[in-house]
Amino acid sequence: ALVGKTAGSKSQPVKLIRILNLENRLLSISTRILLALPTLVLTMSVSTLAQNSEQARRSLQGINDVEVVVQPLGQDAEIDGLTHDQLQQSVESYLKSAGFLLLPTGSAYLYVNINLTLGSGIYIYCAEVELRQSVHLEREPATIVPDAVTWQTGVVGAIPAADLASAMPNQVLQLVSTFLQDFDRTNPGRLTLPPR
């Protein structure tokens, strides 16, 4: 009834149809963008942290043993099958296969941290591996800095939630492999590098 009393009422249903059509087109475009986003992110999965310079590699010289410390994961990752213990065991087994001595109170420790964000069945991740150890300040040799990061590398990317439990450990081991390669360059002959 109100439409019949309004000036230009015949054009209003047409305008409504146009608006609905426009909304449907925008929704379709948005859906296609969201579907393409994982592919775009996957193609941009590149190393973002790289402190494995010559100076960083020299900090690995003379290390005899390490401890592995894996940062606890979020609840979503655990639900999708990626557990802290799984990562811990994967990294430790890989280091042992190379001939590394692992001690709970090692002179240095390899720190593994994975930040995960879940959306639409896709995990966006940032994985980091760092070598941390106590160092002396050059300007004040008597001062010891504990847990200093002397070597690090990392990667960002995307993984489908269904593949998280199998793909993420492999991604982390690729980073650990980079650590072993740099360690071997600084300490030749001490390791047997496992294949990756």
Our count of helices gives 6
Secondary-structure element pattern, one letter each: HHEHEHHEEEEH
Globular, elongated, flat, extended or rod-shaped: what is the shape?
globular
Describe the main β-sheet briefly: 6 strands, mixed
| Rounded mean pLDDT score | 80
List keywords for this structure.
196 residues, alpha/beta, 6-stranded mixed beta sheet, disordered N terminus
Kindly describe this structure.
- With 196 residues, this protein is α/β, with parallel strands linked by helices.
- Helix content is 43%, strand content 29%.
- The chain is built from 6 helices and 6 strands.
- The chain has helices spanning 2-5, 11-43, 54-58, 75-79, 84-97, 164-186; strands at residues 47-50, 65-70, 101-102, 108-119, 122-136, 144-160.
- A 6-stranded mixed sheet has the order 1-6-5-4-2-3.
- A hairpin with a 7-residue loop joins strand 5 and strand 6.
- Helix 5 (84-97) runs parallel beside helix 6 (164-186).
- The longest helix is centred in the N-terminal third of the chain and has 33 residues, at 11-43.
- Residues 1-11 and 26-48 have low confidence and may be disordered.
